[in-house]
Design brief:
This protein is 46% helix and 25% strand. The chain is α+β, with helices and mostly antiparallel strands and 820 residues long. It folds into 7 domains: 38 residues, no CATH class; 40 residues; 60 residues, no CATH class; 166 residues, 3-Layer(aba) Sandwich (Rossmann fold), CATH 3.40.50.300; 100 residues, Beta Barrel (Elongation Factor Tu (Ef-tu), domain 3), CATH 2.40.30.10; 114 residues, Translation initiation factor IF- 2, domain 3 (Rossmann fold, 3-Layer(aba) Sandwich), CATH 3.40.50; 97 residues, Translation factors (Elongation Factor Tu (Ef-tu), domain 3, Beta Barrel). The strands form 8 sheets. Strands 7-8-6-9-10-11 form a 6-stranded mixed beta sheet. A 6-stranded antiparallel barrel has the order 13-14-20-17-16-21. The longest helix has 79 residues. The chain is elongated, with a radius of gyration of 53 Å. The termini are far apart. Bound molecules: guanosine-5'-diphosphate (GDP). The site of guanosine-5'-diphosphate has 16 residues, from helix 14.
Amino acid sequence: MSEDDGKKTLGLRGGARPGNVKQSFSHGRTKNVVVETKRKRVVVPKPGAGNAPAPTVGGDPSRRPAGISDNEMDRRLKALQAAKAREAEDAAKREAAEKERAEERARRREEAEAKEREEQERAERAKARAEEDERKKREVEEAAKLAAAAPPPAEDAPRGKSAAAPARKAPAREEPQKANRNKGREDNRRSGKLTLNQALSGGEGGRQRSMAAMKRKQDRARAKAMGGTVEREKVVRDVQLPESIVVQELANRMAERVADVVKSLMTNGIMATQNQAIDADTAELIIEEFGHKVVRVSDADVEDVITQIEDDEKDLEARPPVITVMGHVDHGKTSLLDAIRNAKVVSGEAGGITQHIGAYQVDQDGTKLTFLDTPGHAAFTSMRARGAQVTDIVVLVVAADDAVMPQTIEAINHAKAAQVPMIVAINKIDRPAADPNKVRTDLLQHEVIVEQMSGEVQDVEVSAINGTGLEQLLEAISLQSELLELKANPNRSAMGAVIEAQLDVGRGPVATVLVQNGTLKKGDIFVVGEQWGKVRALINDQGDRVDEAGPSVPVEVLGLNGTPEAGDVLNVVDTEAQAREIAEYREKAAKEKRAAAGAATSLEQLMAKAKEDENVTEMPILVKADVQGSSEAIVQAMEKIGNDEVRVRVLHSGVGAITETDIGLAEASGAPVFGFNVRANASARNTANQKGVEIRYYSVIYDLVDDVKAAASGLLSAEIRENFIGYAEIKEVFKVTGVGKVAGCLVTEGVARRSAGVRLLRDNVVIHEGTLKTLKRFKDEVAEVQSGQECGMAFENYDDIRPQDVIEIFEREEVERTLD
Ligand code: GDP
């Protein structure tokens, strides 16, 4: 077809100039093949070429008429017209054909292009997908890394990531662009590329993001170049600072990096990790160092519900004084307290009262006096340490046949420190060796000037044994009390202090509370230390249930959710929710404080300790006791033991049976466990045996103190030591006439021996210690009963036995002391 076209074209031209035509013709024939290539070139200039002959032809008639005949001219003109018409026809045909060809070509090109595009698209999509996958993977990895790292660096991390990710993406996206540029000569193509790019949704966005990342990168670089401090100075934060704060939290509140805070702590000589708590003073230093403002927050706002109402003068009424008896060991504190109670107890049922709630009231000529029945300095000081000053008057007991002793001096110092007036009771005046004046003069050395020495401190000579001077002592107390003008407002919600607390087997946690202000009533909701509760029952010092207790009245409070500690303050609040909230807050705060005290050891302290440790031996011990009071008394006594070379460290102290946890702690520190009137439970005993942890039981505090003292000074000599040879459980209790109560027992461990010593344990607490009156097996009196066998046992002079009680059988032997 194209060949024909070529011929015709040439022919046409030939039509205009015959010579040429022929020539062209022959050329056209011979150059058949070439025609096409030429045609291509011809196609474009063709309209020009087509027009060119026209003026030539049109010009001819004007020029020719001179030399040619009209006929000839007509013929020629006709021929010319015909040729012209043919030419126009041909041109149209050619154009159509050309167009067709062009279209064909375009179609083919488009097909090829579409194919190519498709391929490219596929390739790009694959690439994009691969890239996307990789990016996601990286993001996940980075997220994981971030999660592992601390939050503040996490702030920077996403920035770094977004900067890095587009940077990685950019070259990948440029590739297709480059390819486009090379091939894209037509708009079609370009538009195709654009569509493709747009189709790749990431393309445009990626470029934008990478720009943003670049900007951020630059910003950061600039900030870095400026030393990085600019940012910090810009934002000065008010940092809320509680009593102790975890390093991480401190960093958060300052919006600083944890690492920087830890570093700053280190430069201040405090080694603490991000999860450790530091105390407020240390934290304050750090906050100031970072240029922030410290806002100390007092005991959280939850405590605000405990209103510290200042009582109106007109609401105040006189209240009984609270008296603590202090003095040196064996000078007669307990005897004196007992004597006063027995002589003066309100019920008048002297001697018949066995109820011990840690305090009691006596009636002195119509006015009441409240005595704290927890002699010793332990209670006094531990209460003061907790901020509960309950004592109004101190009775200092000094034995007339002895002298002013170390603990006497201690008591004087305590009373002075607490600014509590003192009354000196010179005891044991009945003793032949009694020399009260010596006591008076001795006291002078300690700035205690008694009335008889023209001083202001009242002194009374007494005898706790035969009751001499008791009345005078009580009078002296009332007189002192009058001078103090003690007052309280009974018509307000109660506030008091815990004197003693313990976990009672039958009744749950029980606290003896001395009401200091207001009136505590049954049903009151209260918070006490880290515990809270609702008063289920109030029991007074005579064991009677009462509905309320006013100022200076000691009562046992039932209905606590946990056991508080001596010295804890009780406050009545409106709702259970408040009580619970405060208790929980306090528990948390106490935990943090303890952690802070343990954790934030300064380098200096560590060094000092290490230095000390070169020549100081520390003897760690664990103490478990039957009641809080004993435990505290022991701990305080322990803390005083020691000299420059050795000291005792109480790792842990608590109330209740010795448990496996205690043994674990003891084993870890190589410490012995001291049980005061308590026993290890079965699993603790086994563990102790396995781990070689020494458990020592005591029922007299001074024995315990003496042993530890001796051990601490390396003076332990041979001792009488107890070996537990067996345990028996009481299954049933029988009443046998002539014998009394007999326990039907099963020997659960070891052997029961008639000659051995026995103790009665109730819930691992020692109830009685003594000997056996009888050991029977099937009605026969036997010397021994082996483990797994049943037997009958009865105690000498003791009857209060119950099923489930445990009988501990022990023997004494003399052994070398091992405690060191
Ligand atoms: P505490 O350690 O201060 O509590 O002293 P105690 O009350 O346990 O008394 C120690 C010892 O001194 C006991 O054996 C009492 O019997 C004895 N005792 C206490 N007061 C007197 C007293 O007034 N006269 C005599 N003769 N002995 C007393």
